[in-house]
Design a protein that fits this description.
With 231 residues, the protein is an alpha/beta fold. The protein folds into two domains: 9-132, Rossmann fold, CATH 3.40.50; 151-228, Winged helix-like DNA-binding domain superfamily/Winged helix DNA-binding domain (Arc Repressor Mutant, subunit A), CATH 1.10.10. Helix content is 49%, strand content 13%. It contains eleven helices and seven strands. The chain has helices at 18-29, 43-53, 69-76, 95-103, 116-127, 135-148, 156-159, 164-174, 179-186, 190-203, 209-218, and strands at 9-14, 34-40, 57-60, 85-90, 108-111, 222-223, 227-228. The strands form two sheets. Strands 2-1-3-4-5 form a five-stranded parallel β-sheet, sandwiched between helices. A two-stranded antiparallel sheet has the order 6-7. Helix 1 (18-29) links the parallel strand 1 and strand 2 (34-40). The radius of gyration is 18 Å and the shape is globular. It starts with 8 loop residues before the first strand and ends with a strand. The relative contact order is 0.10.
Length: 231
């Protein structure tokens, strides 16, 4: 554990392969605005170190001994870890992993062969409170939700609090669009979209955009094909 310079995004690396951790550390520490504050060889260590050091972002592998990344994610979904965001970084490009990771509270999902600059960008995006869902990941995740997730009735009362515009914004978020893209579709400013997204997070008790996507599909706000649902 090192003392990090003030103002940098603090990153914890969790992977069972020492060489992978070393590579990520070199990459992250090469960025002026990022710093590695610890490494974990399994999910249990990741949870322990997160409790100790409260990183801004955890780069989490899925397949690790003792406790895998998805189980660690479930622990990190607790209120005490609310300020920490998790990016799942894995070699396994499978729909089920995307689905389970996002349901467990991950804010992003990238592959280990992602170009270095894209991984650094992902860390910055997630640390800033956004979700990192690429269009290809979003499309596949939508299909997986349609196939696996039963539509829930539990959050209907929360959904009823939404204005028509907020519902439109939620549908656009669920389609994987950025604030700028949503602004263009709805003919409003990016600042207005940010305001609506903030209200959605508050009204739906979601920690970030990834949870908004999960909620939109599980409650039927968005139907197969990314179209508005029946609620």
């Amino acid at each position: 554990m090192t003392t990090e310079p003030q103002g940098r995004i603090r990153v914890l690396i969790a992977d069972d392969e020492a060489l992978v951790r070393a590579g990520f550390r070199i990459l992250v520490d090469s960025a002026a605005d990022l710093t590695v504050i610890g490494e974990a060889a399994n999910g249990a260590e990741a949870v322990h170190l997160t409790r100790q050091s409260h990183p801004d972002v955890v780069l989490m592998d899925i397949r690790m001994p003792i406790m895998d990344g998805l189980e660690a994610m479930r622990h990190l979904a607790a209120r005490e870890f609310e300020a920490t965001r998790v990016i799942i970084v894995t070699t396994f490009d499978q729909d089920e992993h995307v689905y389970r990771a996002l349901r467990s509270g991950a804010s992003g999902f990238v592959l280990k062969d992602t170009p270095p600059e894209q991984l650094l960008h992902a860390i910055r995006v997630v640390a800033g409170g956004e979700a990192l869902l690429t269009p290809s990941i979003t499309r596949r995740m939508i299909g997986e939700f349609v196939r696996r997730a039963p539509v829930s009735e539990m959050r209907d009362t929360r959904l009823e609090q939404l204005t028509d515009r907020e519902r439109e914004v939620l549908e656009q978020v669920a389609a994987g669009r950025s604030n700028a893209e949503i602004a263009a579709v709805l003919f409003v400013s990016v600042a207005t979209v940010k305001t609506h997204v903030g209200r959605l997070l508050t009204k739906l008790d979601a920690r970030d955009r990834a949870q908004l996507v999960v909620l939109a599909y599980e409650t039927g706000v968005v139907a197969p094909g990314g179209n508005p649902g029946h609620r």
